[in-house]
Amino acid sequence: MKDAVIIISGGMDSTTMLYEYKDEIALAITFDYGSTQNGRERICAVTHCQRLGIKHIVIPLDFMHRYFKSALLMTAADIPDGNYDDENMKSTVVPFRNGIMLAIACGVAESNGLKRVMIANHAGDHSIYPDCRPGFVDAMSKAMSAGTYDNIEVFAPYTFLDKAEIARHGKALGLDYSETYSCYKGGEKHCGKCGTCRERIKALHDAGIVDTTEYEILTSDF
């Protein structure tokens, strides 16, 4: 039964979820909030939704770019290189981003008679991004249910999976991850140096997937 809205960026995790749960998804939403990688990701999101015949809309959140503070809302030069860890990646936190997106997706879901909002948060994000943690997702789901006539809930099946485990799901689905985008610097090619690139490289390696992504610099010191 197609009763879900999915928030899709065009990255590895949400694209995997799109394919894994395609028979349950009625509508996909990409939020354009002015981040460095938004444009590249959006192209991927459109491609996959069109391929699967899933209705896709883009909702602009330009106020976030104007009023919120995050390296992700500045320039490629502001994105830190190095490992995907707490101190290195905290500057990329966009305050309450997932809360805002879930709230809007909830309103869209109820407006379209849908029951669930899907989000692809995962275990690798828990230490860095507060709005990816299980406690937040559970609390947001309860708030959405309490605030809607249709008791809309969050469906976040990847919450306790790491990125390599998600990639293994994609491998089983035959997903081509070169048609997804991860780099926070937003270039035509993945930089290969920022935390998200390094996390991507390691996840694909650990999942036993041949990485055909185009990188400016390919690192493998993990």
Structure description:
There is one protein chain. By secondary structure, this protein is an alpha/beta fold. It has one domain (4-206): HUPs (Rossmann fold), CATH 3.40.50.620. It contains eight helices and five strands, in the order βαβαβαααβαβαα. It has helices at residues 12-20, 38-52, 62-67, 86-89, 97-111, 134-146, 163-173, 195-206, and strands spanning 4-7, 25-32, 55-60, 116-118, 153-155. The protein has a five-stranded parallel beta sheet with strand order 3-2-1-4-5, sandwiched between helices. Helix 1 (12-20) crosses helix 7. The relative contact order is 0.17. The model has no long low-confidence stretch (mean pLDDT 92).
Q: In a nutshell, what does this entry contain?
A:
By secondary structure, the chain is α/β, with parallel strands linked by helices. The protein is built from eight helices and five strands; from the N terminus they run E-H-E-H-E-H-H-H-E-H-E-H-H.
| Number of beta strands | 5
CATH class descriptor name = Alpha Beta
Distance between the termini: 42 Å
* Rg from Cα: 16 Å
Structural class: alpha/beta
Order of helices and strands: EHEHEHHHEHEHH
Note poorly predicted spans. Answer: none
Q: How confident is the prediction overall: mean pLDDT?
A: 92
Question: Please, how many helices?
Answer: 8
% residues in beta strands: 5-15%
Q: Largest beta sheet, briefly? A: 5 strands, parallel
Spell out the blueprint of helices and strands.
Layout lengths: L3 E4 L4 H9 L4 E8 L5 H15 L2 E6 L1 H6 L18 H4 L7 H15 L4 E3 L15 H13 L6 E3 L7 H11 L21 H12 L16
Parallel strand pairs: 1-2, 1-4, 2-3, 4-5
Helix pairs in contact: 1-7, 7-8
